[in-house]
Amino acid sequence: MPVDERTKDPSTGDYIVIRALENGVNLIGMTRGRDTRLLHTEKLDAGEVIVAQFTDNTSAMKIRGRAEILTRHGRILSGPDKA
Amino acid sequence: MPVDERTKDPSTGDYIVIRALENGVNLIGMTRGRDTRLLHTEKLDAGEVIVAQFTDNTSAMKIRGRAEILTRHGRILSGPDKA
Amino acid sequence: MPVDERTKDPSTGDYIVIRALENGVNLIGMTRGRDTRLLHTEKLDAGEVIVAQFTDNTSAMKIRGRAEILTRHGRILSGPDKA
Amino acid sequence: MPVDERTKDPSTGDYIVIRALENGVNLIGMTRGRDTRLLHTEKLDAGEVIVAQFTDNTSAMKIRGRAEILTRHGRILSGPDKA
Amino acid sequence: MPVDERTKDPSTGDYIVIRALENGVNLIGMTRGRDTRLLHTEKLDAGEVIVAQFTDNTSAMKIRGRAEILTRHGRILSGPDKA
Amino acid sequence: MPVDERTKDPSTGDYIVIRALENGVNLIGMTRGRDTRLLHTEKLDAGEVIVAQFTDNTSAMKIRGRAEILTRHGRILSGPDKA
Amino acid sequence: MPVDERTKDPSTGDYIVIRALENGVNLIGMTRGRDTRLLHTEKLDAGEVIVAQFTDNTSAMKIRGRAEILTRHGRILSGPDKA
Amino acid sequence: MPVDERTKDPSTGDYIVIRALENGVNLIGMTRGRDTRLLHTEKLDAGEVIVAQFTDNTSAMKIRGRAEILTRHGRILSGPDKA
Amino acid sequence: MPVDERTKDPSTGDYIVIRALENGVNLIGMTRGRDTRLLHTEKLDAGEVIVAQFTDNTSAMKIRGRAEILTRHGRILSGPDKA
Amino acid sequence: MPVDERTKDPSTGDYIVIRALENGVNLIGMTRGRDTRLLHTEKLDAGEVIVAQFTDNTSAMKIRGRAEILTRHGRILSGPDKA
Amino acid sequence: MPVDERTKDPSTGDYIVIRALENGVNLIGMTRGRDTRLLHTEKLDAGEVIVAQFTDNTSAMKIRGRAEILTRHGRILSGPDKA
Amino acid sequence: MPVDERTKDPSTGDYIVIRALENGVNLIGMTRGRDTRLLHTEKLDAGEVIVAQFTDNTSAMKIRGRAEILTRHGRILSGPDKA
User: Radius of gyration of chain A from Cα atoms?
Assistant: First the structure.
């Protein structure tokens, strides 16, 4: 899987911001490519914030549990009830 | 299918944001290329949010079930009734 | 049909957003190139949303049936009556 | 007619949006190049919408019949009477 | 006349929009290059709309007859009287 | 005069828009290069509109007679009296 | 892991700004790549500010404890209670 | 003086717009390069408009006589009295 | 550690502005790369201002002590009390 | 002094606009490079306007005498008294 | 330390503007690179202004003494008291 | 000191505008590079304006004496008293 990475600059990719509003929020990274599999699950406790980029390996992120999410297209809340 | 990926930077592609408003919402990725086939189905329960990029393999995404969707061209609701 | 795809990044192409307002809405992709033929027909039931990019193979998309469409140039409704 | 397509990305070209306001609207693609000939005619029934890009083969599009047209330079109506 | 077309992307050129306000409107493409000659004349009947790009072969377009014209620099009317 | 035209895309150059307000308006293209000579004169009758690009051969355009002119830097009238 | 870094300019990457609102705030950098592991933990005392870029090695940052965070997508607070 | 003109696109250079407000206005192109000499003088009669680009050969333009001038930095009048 | 620096232009990187509001403010540069170590500590007395870029060697900056900080994402104060 | 001018496009450089408000205004071009010498003096009579680009040979321009000057950073008057 | 400077254009880098509000203001340039050392100290008397770019050799600038500073991120005052 | 100047275009660099408000204003160019030395001093009499670019040789400019200065970051006055 040798890739010529000449013009890639991973440090400038877009990111999303997630703030857990309860314990046990999951941020689940899913694999880029032909197969869409779970790549990594990051658990967040209430009040924790994660700022996460899309990467060469991650093309989708799933948020499970009550959280506030900031994206390029606006702000949205995850979880059963809107806080 | 060897492709020279020199100037591609997958981490900067646009993404859409989907928040399920009921259990069993489906986000269905469809294949890029001559054939348009189902590539992957991701199931979302009520309140789950997914942030998903278009990729080398996915050129269309279908949303089935009640959901709120944020895109470059605005916000739209899927599902039988506007909430 | 070997093409050097070096600077193409299919994941950043523009897309349109379609929300079916009735069952049986058709999104019809038409072929890019000298011949304009039907490439693929995707059927949507009421409330389903599809977010679709133009691709190397598709240079036009036709929408048949009542739907709400979001594009770079604004929002438009398809179907016999404006809802 | 071998062309090196290295930096072309057909999926990002601009498009126009056409909504037929009566049956039998024609979207006529005309050839790019020294000769300007009819390349393809797409017929639209009332309410149908087509989103069409300019391509390597098409440098002009003609709309015949009553339709609403969205473009980069604004919105315009075709057909004998302004609706 | 072999030209290396590597970085040209004809599908992204600017276009103008013309709506005929009477029968017999002429859109006349004129040749790019040392000689400025008539390349093609397209006749439009009342209500017909044409969306036309500048091309490798056309560097000027002349409109004869009553028409509404949308351009990058604004809207203008052709023809003897302002409607 | 062989020129490598690799990255030139003549179809995207800026243009000006001219509407003749009387018969016999002249649009005079003048040569690019060391010598500034008359390259072409296009005659316009009242109401005719021409949309003209700068080209590899033309670096100045002169308008003689009453006309309305739209440019990147605004709108101006040619001719003896402001209409 | 030899990488041709020709067009990368690490000094222009985006950054986030974090101000600790209590002692013991943690800024946890997580590894870019197939494995998402803890790369570095930086401890901040109340009032300390850190301005941190994404890098070739870091694609996510987690903030634990009460802090004010400035990002491209807005401002957010971490920690159990909104101050 | 062979120059590789690969990435130059003379048709997209900026231009200024000059409207003569009296007979005998002079637009004087001056040479680019080590020597600043008069390259060309274009005479304008009252009401004539010229739209002129900077070129490989011209790096300054002088206007003598009463005229209205539109530029990237705004509008200015030449000539002894402000009209 | 030979790096081809062809397209890097260190002089255009973003910078932050820090104004010390008391004696003994520390601006601590931290190393870019796999290890995050202290690279340099700059001490500022009250009223001193430093304008500092991110560099090839620095990917994070920590501010300890009362200071006013101007960044791309806004203004923030460091130190125990908001002044 | 052979220079590869491949990607330079002298016709797109920025320019300033100068209107002489009295006879004998001087626009003095000064040399780019290690030595800053007078390159050319252009004399302007009252009402004359000059539109001048920076060039490969000129990196500074001095205006002596009463004049109105339009630049990218705004408008300024030269000469002993503000008019 | 041979560096291929092909795409660097030092003349376009960002700059800051400093106006000394008292005698003896110091503008201290600090070295880019692994070691952060004092590179140059420029002394300013009251009323003197300096406009200074970041360079290949300078990645930080420190201002000591009362001064007004204009930057990309706004205006700030150095020195013990806000004037 | 042979430098490949391929993609440099000195004519497009940013500039500052200085208007002397008294006789004997000095504009002092300082050398780019490891040593910061005086490169050139330009004397301005009251009312004279200079428009000066940063260059390959100049990375800082000092203004001594009463003057009005226009920059990318705003307008500032040099000299002992604000006029």
Answer: 14
Q: What count of other Cβ atoms lies within 10 Å of the Cβ of residue A45?
A: 12
For residue G62, give the nearest of A49, I36, A22, I32 by alpha carbon. A49
The Cα of I53 is separated from the nearest Cα of chain K by a number of Å equal to 5
Does any CB of chain H come closer than 8 Å to the CB of residue F3? yes
User: Taking CB atoms and an 8 Å limit, are D69 and E17 in contact across chains?
Assistant: yes
CA angle C27, C29, C30 (to 5 degrees): 140
Q: How far out from the chain centre does Cα G63 lie?
A: 7
Nearest CA in chain I to K8: I9
Q: Check: CB of residue H54 under 8 Å from CB of residue J11.
A: yes
Residue L22 lies in a domain: yes
- Number of domains chain F is built from: 1
Nearest to H80 among J16, J47, J75 (CB): J47
Which one, of A11, G62, K15, lies nearest residue I59 by Cα?
Answer: A11
pLDDT given at position F1: 29
Q: Return d(Cα C27, Cα C17) in angstroms, integer.
A: 11
What's the pLDDT at G42? 95
- Show which of residues 29-48 on chain F sit within 8 Å of chain E, judged by CB atoms: 29, 39-40, 42, 44-48
Structure-token pair, residue G60: 């996510």
> L and K: touch, per 3+ CB pairs < 8 A?
yes
pLDDT of residue I10: 63
Q: Is B78 on the interface with C (CB under 8 A)?
A: yes
Decide: residue C62, CB within 10 A, 0-12 exposed, 13-18 middle, 19+ buried.
buried
Q: Measured between CB atoms, does F22 come within 8 Å of chain E?
A: no
Q: Does A63 touch chain B (CB under 8 A)?
A: yes
Min Cα distance F45 → chain H (Å) is 17
Q: Which residues of E44-59 are buried (b: 16+ CB within 10 A; e: fewer)?
A: bebbbbbbbbbbbbbb
Task: Give me the phi and psi of A50, to 5 degrees please.
Answer: -125, 140
Pairing mode of beta strands G25-31, G38-44: antiparallel
**Residue whose C-alpha is closest to residue G8's, from I2, A6, B6:** A6
Residue E29 inside a domain? The answer is yes
In a domain, J47, yes or no: yes
Query: Is the CB of L81 inside 8 Å of chain J's CB atoms?
Result: no
Query: E13 at the D interface (CB within 8 A)?
Result: yes
Q: Output the tens digit of pLDDT for each of chain B's 83 residues.
A: 233 333 445 666 789 999 999 999 999 999 887 777 888 999 999 999 999 999 888 999 999 999 999 999 999 999 986 54
**Boundaries of domain holding J55:** 10-65
Query: Are A and J close enough to touch, i.e. 3+ CB pairs under 8 angstroms?
Result: no
pTM (2 decimals)?
Answer: 0.88
Q: Kindly indicate the confidence band of residue E34, based on its pLDDT and cuts at 50, 70 and 90.
A: confident
CATH number at residue I16: 2.60.40.50
Chain G closest CA to I9's CA: distance in Å? 8
pLDDT average, residue stretch I21-37: 90
CA nearest to E7 within chain F: F7
The Cα–Cα gap between I22 and I20 comes to 6
CB spacing of A47 vs G71 below 8 angstroms? no
Q: Does residue B26 form part of some domain?
A: yes
